[in-house]
Design a protein that fits this description.
Shape: globular
Number of strands: 19
Number of helices: 27
Radius of gyration: 26 Å
Largest sheet: 6 strands, parallel
Length: about 750
């Protein structure tokens, strides 16, 4: 890396310290998080910022802004505004597809028997569950003693949640029926919202949550809250301390830390919180420990109550019989707990990938040039391709070769930014799923294609991947292509990494390196080395800073003056990337300073003015960069990569933020001519090798690093790997398919 004349060269991996910093999520604010008041829900400022949850970068426990306004957090109100349009937008169609998947999960839950009466002590099956889980976790018994129970059946209470086992060798896998496209749900009725608002007011909770609570809990939301105040935890952004205060206000002396309603809600909240961190399941011991931290008197009993009621599912995948049949020789296998939502998605995804992998050879590919990737696709319906930015040309060339053979081929990228860089023939994953882009679907509801190439595959969360694979027709080919060095998806799961690790299909690794000094720098980071690189054209510049205030000042100077003058890249094509939203040099502080310099204005519409750069989050983990065009009665009008978007005014506060500065998670799958990466001193604990790799590779022609973390940067590159995620996909795939040699 090349340093400017006024600074010193960056530290290298050789200078790293012996002990790595504590690993944190990409969205860490870099500042201590105060503990919320546990007595009551004081005001709407205690509810987590919805925009940060929507873009997938919010730390579940992060303290929100003290001036947050939750009046715009109602997704139901947003839907009501969208219904006034004559056509559904791409975003609405995408959300509808996701709601359809979740509706199937809710239907599955509804088929279960009535829950155990509240307040009843565990006995019979529930008591057996408790003893069995304890025995399995301690290693006293094998998992098969507990998990070889009859499968669930509709309308019957299961004796134990049945885990997935390795499927016997089937004759020929059958593609599941693709459900009919779902319509967007209607906004909650006004009377429902009014009733919920009255209950929230009585319990001291923010009235602004009423519409969101009504959408989550349905028409009987008010009665549901009175009967079980902890159901408030089902609303995104609400914390246990807030739900406890709400419950105390409604229940009075009846409220206790061991209340089954409270413990059941806490189990679900813990698993949903884990999903925001990328996990699709958690070890039962982790959930039990979390319950103990929340003052639950008997975590074991509380956990088994939740299991018996079907609030969570129990899994123990990958159990292998000991050769000598001696149960004592089997090592303890962790018991995993998961929510129906992610369990269904992960199992559906595993089945769909196995179906594609077993498609067999396709002789039609013999007529084209036999490259390594062509040979892999000809032999298998599922192929994994790895490589950096320059390697994207290989799967794109594969799609062109398929079209030359008369096959229907589609290339899908994670973002509009990524698809635009590939040309008009490319689509986005969201656009393909919604039907707004791509070839559409056949009479069975499957994509009308023979080959689908998915770029930026590490950004696929498990639910999106499941919907994608379920829509693949029999006999088609799926190529998952991506850079394994970048950050994982903002949503739950690590689909690309799990498929790679399972080794159940052909894998091809590109030998095409990323060019130039930036490519050389990023390649070194990928193997844990932060090297100095020559930058004769100022491709890489390091700007040392002493504190966060100087970091903000130098960042504004770079974007507004230095990069346009020295590199020739205008400010609107330069993207700032920092570690988190909060802190003295997070996205909020940087965006405020950049707006003041580049587009000053009073912020007449929710803090925005025409010409402002924004980041719009239509769904979890999806960020659309755009520019404010105008503010009308129907909402905020944006231009997102050439596509007009109208954000209803009810959703502006929760889904739109200024976009001169983004987090690395938001920037994943996108590139700009120039990137300025800001590393203030308080961001050191949020750094990891994947974070640095992702952030440093976002600039095509130029990279400036505002460097204030000293030795923490080379130490993160050398010693802090990706955050581990607990998932089941790899084990499920290995049970369905034999690893490829």
């Amino acid at each position: 890396m090349t340093a400017p004349s006024e600074g010193t060269p960056p530290p290298t991996a050789a200078a790293r310290r012996a002990e790595p910093p504590a690993e944190e999520r990409d969205s860490a604010d870099g500042a201590a998080t105060p503990t919320p008041d546990t007595a009551e829900v004081a005001n709407s400022a205690e509810v987590a910022n919805s925009a940060e949850v929507a873009d997938g970068t919010a730390e579940p426990d992060a303290t929100p802004d003290t001036d947050a306004d939750t009046s715009g957090t109602s997704d139901a109100a947003a839907t009501d505004g969208a219904e006034k349009a004559t056509e559904r937008s791409e975003t609405e169609a995408e959300l509808a597809a996701q709601r359809e998947l979740r509706a199937r999960i809710e239907q599955r839950k509804a088929e279960k028997a009535a829950p155990i009466e509240s307040g009843a002590k565990l006995s019979g099956t529930a008591a057996d569950l408790l003893a069995a889980v304890r025995a399995v976790e301690s290693g006293e018994k094998s998992g098969t003693a507990f998990f070889d129970s009859p499968a669930r059946s509709a309308g019957k209470t299961p004796t134990a949640p049945a885990p997935r086992r390795a499927a016997p060798t089937p004759a020929e896998p059958v593609r599941p029926r693709i459900p009919e496209p779902a319509t967007a749900p209607r906004a909650a009725a006004a009377e429902t919202v009014t009733a919920v608002r009255a209950v929230l007011t009585e319990g001291g909770a923010p009235e602004a949550l009423a519409a969101q609570v009504a959408e989550v809990l349905g028409e009987q939301a008010a009665d549901a809250l009175r009967e079980d105040p902890w159901r408030l935890l089902a609303v995104p952004g609400v914390r246990p301390e807030q739900a406890d205060g709400f419950a105390r206000a409604l229940l009075g002396a009846e409220c206790g830390p061991g209340d089954e309603r409270r413990t059941g809600a806490l189990v679900g909240w813990q698993l949903e919180r884990a999903a925001l961190q990328g996990h699709t399941a958690l070890e039962s011991s982790v959930v039990r420990g979390a319950l103990a931290e929340r003052s639950v008197p008997d975590p074991d009993e509380a956990l088994q109550q939740a299991i018996a009621e079907g609030a969570v599912l129990v899994f123990q995948d990958g159990i292998e019989e000991a050769e000598d049949g001696d149960e004592s020789a089997r090592p303890p296998v962790p018991v995993l707990l998961g929510l129906d939502r992610y369990a269904l998605a992960e199992e559906s995804l595993a089945d769909g990938l196995a179906r594609l992998a077993k498609s067999g050879a396709d002789a039609r590919w013999e007529a084209t040039e036999p490259t390594e990737l062509v040979r892999a696709v000809a032999a298998s319906g599922l192929v994994v391709h790895t490589g950096g930015e320059a390697a994207r040309t290989e799967p794109v060339a594969l799609a062109e070769a398929a079209r030359a053979l008369g096959l229907r081929a589609v290339v899908a990228a994670h973002s509009e930014n990524g698809s635009r860089r590939l040309g008009p023939a490319a689509v986005t994953v969201a656009g393909l799923l919604s039907g707004a882009q791509g070839p559409g679907r056949d009479e069975d509801g499957a994509f009308a294609l023979d080959l689908l190439v998915v770029l930026d595959a590490p950004q696929l969360d498990v639910e999106t991947a499941a919907m994608l694979v379920e829509s693949m027709p029999d006999g088609s080919r799926l190529v998952l292509s991506g850079d394994p060095g970048v950050l994982d998806s903002a949503g739950a799961g690590r689909v690309f990494a799990d498929v790679l690790a399972a080794r159940v299909c052909p894998q091809t690794a590109s030998r095409t390196p990323d060019p130039g000094p930036i490519g050389e720098l990023v390649s070194g980071i990928g193997i844990g080395e932060l090297n100095q690189v020559a930058g004769p054209g100022k491709e890489v510049v390091i700007v040392p800073v002493r504190d966060a205030g100087e970091a903000v000042h130098r960042t504004v100077q770079l974007v507004a003056d230095s990069v346009p003058r020295a590199i020739g890249v205008p400010a609107e094509q330069t993207q700032v990337i920092t570690v988190g939203h909060g802190g003295s040099a997070g996205t909020r502080a940087l965006n405020a300073a950049l707006k003041q310099r580049l587009n000053p204005g009073p912020g007449r519409f929710g803090g925005f003015d025409p010409g402002d750069r924004v980041a719009y989050a239509p769904a979890l983990g999806r960020t659309l960069p755009g520019t404010v065009v105008s503010a009308e009665a129907d909402g905020l009008h944006l231009d997102c990569e050439g596509t007009p978007v109208v954000v209803p005014k009810e959703r502006v506060d929760s889904a739109v933020r200024h976009g001169w500065a983004l987090t690395a998670h938001q920037a994943a799958g996108m590139r700009w001519p120039a990137a300025v990466v800001v590393l203030p001193g308080d961001a050191a604990q949020g750094l990891s090798r994947p974070w640095v790799y992702t952030a440093f590779s976002r600039g095509e022609r130029h990279l400036s690093v505002v460097h204030g973390v000293d030795q923490a940067l080379p130490r993160a590159v050398a010693e802090v790997p990706a955050q581990e995620r607990t998932t089941r996909l790899r084990t499920l795939l290995e049970g369905l398919l034999a690893p490829a040699q």
